[in-house]
Amino acid sequence: MGNNRNIVILTGAGVSAESGIDTFRDGGGLWEQHRVEDVATPEAFQRDPDLVLRFYDMRREAVQTKEPNAAHHALARLEREPDGDVLIVTQNVDDLHERAGAKNVLYMHGELLNAWCTACDARSRWTGTLIDRPTCPACGAPALRPDIVWFGEMPYRMEEIYGALRRADLFVSIGTSGAVYPAAGFVRDAREMGVETLELNLERSEGSSWFHETRLGPATEIVPAWVDELVDAG
Ligand code: OAD
After folding, report:
1. What percent of the chain has pLDDT over 70?
2. Catalytic center residues
3. How far is the CA of 101 from the centre of ligand 1 (A)?
4. Is the CB of 25 under 6 A from ligand 1?
5. Which residues contact 47 (CB under 8 A, 6 or more apart)?
6. Which of ligand 1's atoms lies nearest the C-alpha of 176?
7. Residue 138 Cα, ligand 1 centroid: separation in angstroms?
8. What is the distance in A from the centroid of ligand 1 to the CA of 140?
9. Above pLDDT 90, what percent of the chain?
10. Of 82, 92, 222, 232, which sits with the fewest C-beta atoms within 10 Å of its C-beta?
11. Which of 68, 66, 64, 62 is nearest to 100 (CA)?
12. Alpha helices, DSSP H only, in 3-112?
């Protein structure tokens, strides 16, 4: 893998777009169809839990009909390279990296296929619906919510992410618009730590000028090409 042995990869909705999962901010994206304040905040869940549960039930059902694409597979292949250390930090709540075979995936915005019990704090694998108020497998309370980080809540495992960035030689951002912090700030953090930075995206993201290099194109083309290049160089 050339000189870049420790790689932190941040992925966003763009990596799953060609699997048929809607992004958030592109034309026709999820935030054009729904208002963030209605479905993705703790206040929305308090005000109208049925609306919020139904929104995530629909997304949970949809994601199980989708398949990983060439970009997910390429990243899993990179992870399997023997002489490198790859961490995939994803803002996505789908499980497509894992289904492509990636093992080292950190879900900073939670997971659609988890339910989180607000009574006992247990997380349970969840493929069905939550609208019918099922009980928590761990404690029996009907207190499950989607295990999704909503606006106003703290993303998961931030210390681990910053630790990985400090050890990294290369930070790569794939398929994210750079609109949501703290993930949008990783490129600046990485640069301050002296880490090489690369952006792979369909179009320039909001923080594009922070990257040492930007390559534009659909993820299913530019991600496998980049992985080939890296593996061949090693
Ligand atoms: P966005 O919808 O904001 O951005 C998607 C990015 O992917 C855009 O920059 C597109 O240009 C790019 N893109 C679209 N199709 C692509 C393709 N085929 N190949 C490569 N790139 C493509 O999604 P995110 O940046 O992931 O948070 O959004 C970040 C967070 O905002 C999400 O995790 C979610 C949302 O609100 C929460 O729900 C907490």
Report:
1. 98
2. 109
3. 22
4. yes
5. none
6. 25
7. 34
8. 36
9. 89
10. 82
11. 68
12. 14-17, 30-33, 36-39, 42-47, 49-63, 70-80, 96-99
